[in-house]
Known about the structure:
Elements: H1 14-27, E1 33-34, H2 46-57, H3 70-84, E2 93-96, H4 101-110, E3 116-121, H5 125-133, E4 137-144, E5 150-151, H6 153-159, E6 164-170, H7 182-195, E7 198-202, E8 227-232, E9 245-248, H8 251-263, H9 270-281, H10 285-306, E10 321-322, H11 333-344, E11 346-347, E12 349-350, E13 362-365, H12 370-385
Parallel strand pairs: 1-11, 3-4, 3-6, 6-7, 7-8
Antiparallel strand pairs: 2-9, 4-5, 8-9, 10-13, 12-13
The protein binds pyridoxal-5'-phosphate.
Amino acid sequence: MDFAKRISHLRAEGAYAVLARAQALEAQGREIIHLEIGQPDFATYPHVAMAGVKAIAMGQTRYNPPAGLPALREALAEDAGRRRGIEFRAGQVVIAPGTKPLLLLPMMAVLEPGDEVIYPDPGFPSYEAAIGLAGGVPVPVPLLEEQGYDLDLEALEGSLSPRTRMILLNSPGNPTGGIHSRQTLARVAELARRRDAWVLSDEIYARLVYEGEAPSIAQMPGMAERTIIADGFSKTYAMTGWRLGFAIMPEPLAEKMNLLLTHSVGCTATFTQMAGLEAVRGPQDAVDAVVAEFRRRRDLIVAGLNAIPGVRCPMPMGAFYAFPNIRSFGRSSSELAETLLDKAGVAVLPGSAFGRNGEGYLRLTYANSTENIEKAVAKMAAALAAL
Ligand code: PLP
């Protein structure tokens, strides 16, 4: 069967492939510890889930405006603005079924065929996929382990060209847990302004920060008119399956997004948005407790990994991933991930699933119980010692 060229670059996400292999082993009776899939290991907060259930019971199950319910757009403009110290209007906020469409659709709105998009490598696999789907040319820029996985600014400057139309950032980052410093963002902002480029800033992990702060590039002078902030409910509120994301951008672009949403997804489920409204407006102590718990787990997994001879793991500052360097074992990251699954029963992702610069690393999520983390680290240490 023939398919269009524009989808020929699409590959399965590494996490789903490893999950399928892990589940096949479980079906044979093996015990597997899952450190591959990046989602909170607890249920959606009860008050949030109940708001969704109540909305369904009240019949809020019909079409609604493509860019989202006005009340939620209003609440998000206020909440996201207050957290970043920026004033946003509701007209700048658009809602979608997850953050993923809010990576692809803005690119479709601004890229001409052949326009270049700079993006982090290692980075979330959907970035490269979305750039290609929107007709753009992906230009990877490395993140530096020795700088806590901050952007390699020299490489970024060297990658700019007259075709650069967008710079994509992700801080705190998947898969590294790195955070871009204010200095880095100031420099990226300067380069974006000079090149008249858009910045798409994926801030989905903005609330999961363990050290200091995670500044937004939208705070930099002159960036309001060229920044698209993508954010969502999946990670902060443990709502991965509800599908709810939002993005904040200049109003003229938001109006175009309204059209793109109209003709692609139509709208986002009303009851999902009602749950989201409760998540934003309701008590935040559950989020604070989860951040404190993730911090404990991060400390545990990083200490455990660094105690394994041959493994070097920088301290992640945000999100819920550890990204240890495993080069000393002299095997590819996918070989090592397979060995760990087969021999230790621990499912992790090869760094190469996140781009060329991810080779030599593994990604482990610590969105798992302390008991499982301790067990996984001990099993990994034994399997690696036996290599
Ligand atoms: N951006 C990053 C960096 C992610 O890690 C993820 C999910 O893993 C997403 C976006 C997509 O999130 P959503 O579930 O809101 O579509």
